């Protein structure tokens, strides 16, 4: 299939003016932001490109879970997602993303197991699994870790 026949799902543009050091205007549709790569000890004008990627995974995970929860059952709790990018110091060790999902209210075990599967199929997770290993911890309601999953690239 040629690129002309493909469905465009999302677009983005980055513009780095000649007059700017590293501050880059980023656009997605009508939304405009700033990306930067600040040097040590200097404040940045915006998140780094890597931080934008982490925000994309975190927000997509939360949005996907909320959409599923709203369609399938009545979950009124909060969904919080943290993502950290790890570069192990050990020679030959692979970089990976560690995602932690927290549900503020406990849900039935069967629904919780389904939510674990849903997390692993969020659109950004599916995009990233080709480049990184994504490790996910999920907490069902207040309390301790109750499940872990790993998407292996």
Summarize the helices and strands and which ones pair or pack.
Elements lengths: L12 E3 L8 E5 L2 E5 L13 H24 L6 E8 L9 E8 L5 H12 L2 H6 L4 E8 L6 E5 L2
Parallel strand pairs: 5-6
Antiparallel strand pairs: 1-2, 2-3, 4-5, 6-7
Spell out the helices and strands N to C. Answer: EEEHEEHHEE
Low-confidence stretches: none
Oligomer: single chain
Proportion in β-strands: 25-35%
Q: How widely separated are the two ends?
A: 25 Å
Please tell me the CATH architecture of the largest domain by its name. Answer: 2-Layer Sandwich
Which sequence of strands runs across the widest sheet? 4-5-6-7
Q: Which class do the helix and strand fractions yield?
A: alpha+beta
Give the C-alpha Rg.
18 Å
In CATH terms, the superfamily of the largest domain is: K homology (KH) domain
| Total count of strands | 7
Taken from the alpha-carbon principal axes, the silhouette is globular
Largest sheet: 4 strands, mixed
Count of structural domains: 2
What average pLDDT do the residues reach? Answer: 86
**Alpha plus pi helix count:** 3
Q: Which percent bin holds the helix content? A: 25-40%
For this entry, give a set of tags:
153 residues; GMP Synthetase, Chain A, domain 3; 4-stranded mixed β-sheet; 3-stranded antiparallel β-sheet; 27% helix; globular
């Amino acid at each position: 299939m040629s690129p002309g026949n493909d469905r465009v799902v999302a677009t983005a543009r980055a513009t780095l003016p000649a007059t700017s050091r590293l501050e880059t205007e980023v656009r997605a549709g009508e939304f405009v932001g700033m990306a930067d790569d600040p040097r040590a000890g200097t404040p940045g004008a915006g998140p780094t490109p890597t931080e934008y990627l982490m925000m994309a995974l975190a927000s997509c995970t939360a949005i996907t879970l909320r959409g599923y929860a709203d369609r399938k059952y009545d979950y009124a709790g909060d969904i919080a997602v943290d993502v950290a990018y790890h570069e192990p110091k050990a020679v030959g060790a692979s970089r990976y993303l560690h995602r932690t999902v927290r549900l503020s209210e406990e849900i039935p075990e069967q629904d919780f197991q389904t939510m674990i599967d849903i997390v692993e199929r969020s659109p950004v997770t599916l995009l990233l699994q080709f480049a990184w290993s994504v490790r996910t911890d999920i907490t069902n309601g207040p309390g301790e870790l109750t499940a872990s999953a790993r998407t292996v690239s």
